[in-house]
Structures are given as C-alpha cells and as structure tokens.
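Q: Now give one record:
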Amino acid sequence: MELQLHSFEAGRRGKPDELETQIAHLIGAQFLEIDPNARFDLRVAGGHNHQQDKLEVRVSGEVSRNILEISGINDRIAGIVVHHYNKIHLTNLTADDFMIHITPKPQDVHLASNGAAGDSGNPIAVAYRHTPNNLPWERYLAVHFRNLLDIIYKNNGKVPPALAEASGIKYLEGLKADGKIDVDVLYQGARFHGIPDITIASEHETSLRVAELRRSLAHLVLTELKLIGEMHKINLGTPDITINGLGDWNQGGWKVDEGTREAKSYRDGFGSYGVAEDSFSGEDPSKPSGTGTFLARYISNQVVKQGISDFARVALSYKIGREEVGLNITTNGTGRWPQEEIESRVKGTIPLRIKDAIAILNLKSPSLYRKIAYGSDFFHDPKLPWNKHPQQHL
C-alpha cells in the first residue's frame, strides 16, 4: 500500500494569527454570556502602528444587533484584547498602548434564533483508534510540543520535571512567545509508518544563542518523543529536526508581523484530510464550519471507540434551507461493517442537524469557548465534549 504524508502546524500562543483566534473566541464567549442565542462571525486582525508606536487591533465582522446596542460593549471588547495580549506575552500594557478599532456590522434580531444552520458547509473530521485522544499523530504531536514550549516560556525557562529528569536539561531560558511547530507523519493506509520531519521556529531572547537553542530544544523534543512512545507502546523513531532554520529570531509578534484569525483556517479543522472550511474561531454555534466539525469529530470518535473501525473520516454536508444532512464515512479499509451499515447506524442514532449538535455538545456555553481559547486548539483536550461525551451505542 502506498505511503501518504499528513502534516499539521501548531502556532505558539503568541504567534499573531494564533493570538487572534484566541481573542475572537474570547469575545464570542462574552457575547454568549450576554445572550446564548447571539449570532456572530468575528474577524480580529492585529499589527503595529509604527508612526504611533502602538499595537493596532481591528475587531470586525457581523454581530447580533441587540449585542451591539448594549452600553459599554466596545469597552468590554477592548478589555478582552488588552488582557489576553498581556496574558500571552507576559506584559503589563494598558489600553493607552493600543489602537483598537471595533467596527462590527449589526445582524437583524430575527437571525438570532440559532434554530437552523447559519450557512452551507462541508465539515470533515477524523479519528484513529490507537492514538492519543484518537487524534492523528501529526496533530497530537504538533500541539503537544507547542504546549511544551509555551509551558517552558511561562515558567521562566523551567522544564517540566519528568522531561527534565529524562533529558538532563532543567532549564531552557530565553524563549519568547512567538513561533510554530510543524510535524510530518507518514501513514500506510490507516497505519502509522513514521515521522520524517519536525520543524520548529521559536522567537528567543538575544541571550539565548541560536546554536544553544537548537541543541537543547532538539534534545528535549527527541526525549519527549521517546517518553510519548513508551507511554503509548509505539516506536516513534528519530525524525530529522530543524530549529530556526533561518538563524536568530529575536523580534516577533504584532510588532513585526500582521495577523488575522482567518489566516490559518486549517489549524481549526483537519485540513490534510480533505476539509476546506472557513476558520471557525470566533463563530457562533449556528455556523456549520465549527459545529459540523465538532459533530463529525464526535461521530468519528464513536466509530473508533466502539471498535467499528481503526480509522474513521466523517464528512457532513449542510445546505441552507434543507433539513436533510449529508453523511459520508470512510474507514480506509479498517471497517468491521460495510460502509452503508455504518452510515445507516449513525443516522439512526445521532441527530445530524446543527440545532441537535448544539444541544448534544452544549455549544452555547461561554466556558467552553474560553476553554478552547486558552487551550488554543479545538481537539487536543480529551475533556472537550466531542471527545468526552458518553458514547451512543451504534
């Protein structure tokens, strides 16, 4: 069987387009707290105004009119931007250090019922039976290593105890908030075949020389990879690791880069498995891009967790004005049942409409939006409802 390459890139929490996805989702949480039926499709774009020497952020999109008419709502939005920026970059900036433009367009009140899909969409999600959190290895590892770098950065260079003991490296001081991790994984059908490459770009202080960053970080990553492999009883190999391939990187974030929450739509879903949806960060639950993807992920998890297949790719299809939802499930040859039977049992067990998915997964919860924003990923946390929700026997 031919080998197929899948890749995933996880941005550090201080990477501009990653930061903007978090802010968009936190603003969405605020709207849902005000009105659980709020409709919104937010756009957040950040940068730096060099003439004024201030960070410049634009918040736009479409929002339910009743939300925009609330007194002081713009101040609340601006407060979210400033607070979260400080949280991620470990700074103490005030609103005077920012130029924040808040210009969303109002949506009519009658659109705020969330009773039907807010758009057409073709969301896709996948699950593997024998992987951490049933995630593709490339996604799990990229987000895991991103989280590791962010933990070391937030803890003033202190390496987590288990990794410090195994690697002999207790500190990696000098990391900054921007960067990204890309992991390539080869599969043979649905079976893991190997990790050819891991590529890391990390902003760092001038006190941390790039040669030391490369040496220490490569050793930490390979040691952590070995620990993960031992935990899950799989040999993950020794991939080639490239760190800061262009050399020193001492200035990052909005001061040198522009971003937007729509810049990396693939980071929200399962792009290398065929999905071509919009970014669903900062969207309300009526949108099929996000809600449909969460439901597809929930279904794929049920299929593999119940032993029906070792791999499941679930594709849903939503059309404006139609109640019927299209469903396609493929198992890459690992299914214990015929495709038609799997799809029939899913349709007979799990409601597929957007409003049903909202109820099943509690998608109007502001706390869920905040959990996703702080985790900076939609699928890594096993406690998220599309991963943790009680199984429905198919």
The chain has a mean pLDDT of 93. The domain at 263-388 is CATH 3.30.300.10 (GMP Synthetase; Chain A, domain 3). The first helix runs from residue 16 to 34.
